[in-house]
Amino acid sequence: MNSAEPVILARGLTKRFGQLTAVDRLDLRVDRAEVFGFLGPNGCGKSTTIRMLCGLLLPSAGEIEVLGCQIPRDAEALKRRIGYMTQKFSLYEDLTVGENLDFLATVQGLPQRYGRQRIEELLERYWLTDRRTQLAGTLSGGQKQRLALAGAVLHKPDLLLLDEPTSAVDPQSRREFWDSLFELAEAGTTLLVSTHYMDEAERCTRLGILDAGRLVADGSPAELMAALPGRPLLVECLQPRNAQRALQGAEEVIAMAQIGNSLRVLSAVADARERISRRLATQGIEAHVQETEANLEDVFVAVTHHPQTHAGAHA
């Protein structure tokens, strides 16, 4: 991967707000045409990092290079080469769909004839042609999302940064949106997408997991799942809530979650299956304990787990 062309390079990237360190010595590399995902809970530093990469927020320390531009020095030159889509609908709700795109084409300095041609192309691509004269504020969540994406790629950016872009839309709209993102990546656009949805994170070619402003994991979803210490376990019994209470606070248990009538248990110790079976048996709970396939949620819980507390011992 290092032989590929880097689009984003960040070294020691740090952002402090008073006593709070929102981003803590982050090293990041994103290569051309990657779909790189930032995965993490709200408040972990995803949005702050994206704003620094855009040049919208000054870092407290560290170096940033985006598309060969030094940030913040070359932030103005970078603006015409990147697209930025936030989680909140950021277009003008009292203008029509067409008027919003006309305005953005003017702001981007697109030649009039090319701008009109590009708008027609995007209206058709994102199923908005019949909404051209509709006020943007009256669109559904999925339609607003498609309009925002059209506005973000109007000028054909080399890099598209998306900050939790699907947080307010239904599952079908999310699937359609991701199809559009892969279409852009196939055409050579590099994408950095922040999310807290595991199913979206699995779609990315590479993932960075943030925890309290630090990058705690970096790799493809398959690589991260393969590197998970130990194996997740599935505990099948008649009363999974009783099993969960019996395992609460056990040192071999990192996290638990009830899935239907089973209990999914994450542990990093080699003999977890035997230890958990014994612990349940001593509590008089009959259970079948077996290994199961890892998923990204297991990875996320494992790398963000703080062993000094038991706060993460149940889901």
Helix and strand topology:
Blueprint: E1 6-17, E2 20-31, E3 35-39, H1 46-54, E4 61-66, E5 69-71, H2 75-78, E6 82-85, H3 97-107, H4 112-125, H5 141-153, E7 159-163, H6 171-186, E8 190-195, H7 198-203, E9 206-211, E10 214-219, H8 221-226, E11 233-237, H9 240-247, E12 255-259, E13 262-266, H10 272-282, E14 287-291, H11 296-304
Parallel strand pairs: 3-8, 3-9, 6-7, 7-8
Antiparallel strand pairs: 1-2, 1-4, 4-5, 9-10, 11-13, 11-14, 12-13
Helix pairs in contact: 3-4
Explain what the structure shows:
- With 315 residues, the protein is of the alpha/beta class.
- It folds into two domains: 6-225, Rossmann fold, CATH 3.40.50; 233-304, Alpha-Beta Plaits (2-Layer Sandwich).
- Helices cover 34% and strands 27% of the residues.
- The strands form three sheets. The protein has a six-stranded mixed beta sheet, with helices on both faces. It has a four-stranded antiparallel beta sheet with strand order 2-1-4-5.
- Helix 3 (97-107) crosses helix 4 (112-125).
- The longest helix has 16 residues, at 171-186.
- It is elongated and about 75 Å long.
- It starts with 5 loop residues before the first strand and ends in an 11-residue tail after the last helix.
- Mean pLDDT is 90; it is low at 308-315.
- This is ABC transporter ATP-binding protein.
- It comes from Metapseudomonas boanensis.
- Residues 8-237 form the ABC transporter domain.
- GO terms for molecular function: ATP binding.
